[in-house]
Design goal:
This is Malic enzyme. The protein contains 23 helices and 14 strands. It has 568 residues and is α/β, with parallel strands linked by helices. It has three domains: 115 residues, Hemocyanin, N-terminal domain; 144 residues, Rossmann fold (3-Layer(aba) Sandwich), CATH 3.40.50; 190 residues, 3-Layer(aba) Sandwich (Rossmann fold). α14 links the parallel β4 and β5. α8 runs antiparallel to α11 and α21 packs across α23.
Amino acid sequence: MVQLLPEIQASLLIKAQGKEVITSTRFNKGSAFTEEERRLFKLHGLVPPNIHTLDEQVYRTYQQYKGYEDDLGKNTFLASMKAQSEVLYYKVILHLRTVIAVWPQCSLGQLVQTHLKEIFSIIYTPTEGDAILNYSRLFRKAEGCFLNINDQDGIEESLFNFASGQDIDYIVVSDGEQILGLGDQGVGAILISIAKLVLSTLCGGIHPSRQLPVVLDCGTDNETLLKDDLYLGLHQSRARGENYDQFVDKFVKTARKVFPRAYIHFEDFGLNNARRILDRFRCHVPCFNDDIQGTGCVCLAALLAAFHISDIKLEDARIVIYGSGSAGMGIADQIVDAIATETNQSKAEASKRIWCLDKPGLLVRSLGNQLTSAQAPFAREDDEWPRGKATDLLTVVQEVNPHVLIGTSTKPKAFTEDIIREMAKHVFRPIVFPLSNPTRLHEACPKDINHWTNGRALIATGSPFPPVERHGMKYEIAECNNSTCFPGIGLGVVLSRTRLVSNKMLVAAVKALASRSPALQDPSQPLLPDVEDVREISVDIARAVIRTAVQEGYAQEKNIPREGKRAG
């Protein structure tokens, strides 16, 4: 977080006194107010007399956090802490000893992290999924901006009410239709918007005061929620068609009107909407869909590291993707974009390296209207497949002999022993990525994959897993966590004020992340870097995005330092 100068802090706080100060999530310092501050802000009698520093408060808060035995309890405790004091909340997680500030104001400081890796799975996947499932029942305090489809004329007023005249750099918006593999969670999606912005602060250094979490409440088709009297969202079926499109259009246009420099991050939209919404706006607005583009970027970065180890060229790889929803098609798109960017191949030619499967089996042209617009470019010609041949995953693996098997199906245990052993017959270093999350939905356990391939498989997962033990050695498993990628992309977009987010910028981000792979130095190490290094990685990614934005002529920020120069 960027620390304000003392005179700026005073000018902000002087307008509030007494309970206004200690009930402000942004300005509350708990027991750390000095005697001068207590006098200035009329706090005597409102806080205990003994003054504790921020570090002392971190120690006390962390001990309280450790007292909760279950992860959801820890998640709820931290959410309550955030509602009391944002500074203490972020300090507990990052435990910064010096401040990191963002260019161009000043240079980067030194960073010491202690609790980030430990707490990461509590504030994000998989525990955040449980918090979203229980949103209305655990509700304590409203956070974020709630827009509903029955009050489209009130969008502008609602955005103004939230921002209170502040400028906004980063917006995360969700309609809650497809949350973390949990399906339609309606208004509970506000928690995923909040969680993504928390990560953009923790991992990318974006200041919380310049963020806007939004939920577009379009109703819900989740019968459990509709029958729950405590459910806080609209008790109506999810809107579709023209009314839905009009709502999304009004939101984007109004958000750009109120916050003309804001970057819009789409999150957890349904399969039928995610791709077309991204395609509709990406040529006009700096926007990004994490489920499509973020997942694609981080998966491709892991693949590039795996290809380096297995000595396979990207354009020569045979890749099977099991699960052709937003995530699977986002990965496919990112692979194709990378091949097209790095070689002279067309996207149509590059797409022939990928075989996609979904509920009907292998995607083929004859499926016609059953194919989504995202799936259609990857459907195989029917005459490519033996007539009468089954199109299930095992058969496809037997026919294709893939180097890579990626799972985004949310179908537990889909990568069976027969499938993995069949793959390992034909490829010396099979690359297997069971990416579905939360953890209970994974296609295969890394321990089993490692055993079935006699330790030859290169593995990355979508949720955290313990190390795999083999022959007395422990091997860390890479997690394809989007948080290693999207905060850096967002930081680069915000700092450069790019007009658009281009394919070349995303490929540049992928290369920056892949270059940090520990496996490049030691093949026994994970394919992706640890979350503890994510802030430094975000700087690398932001730099790559900014450089590409300048090269393509999209950057609008003035005086961006050139290569070899540093702001300070």
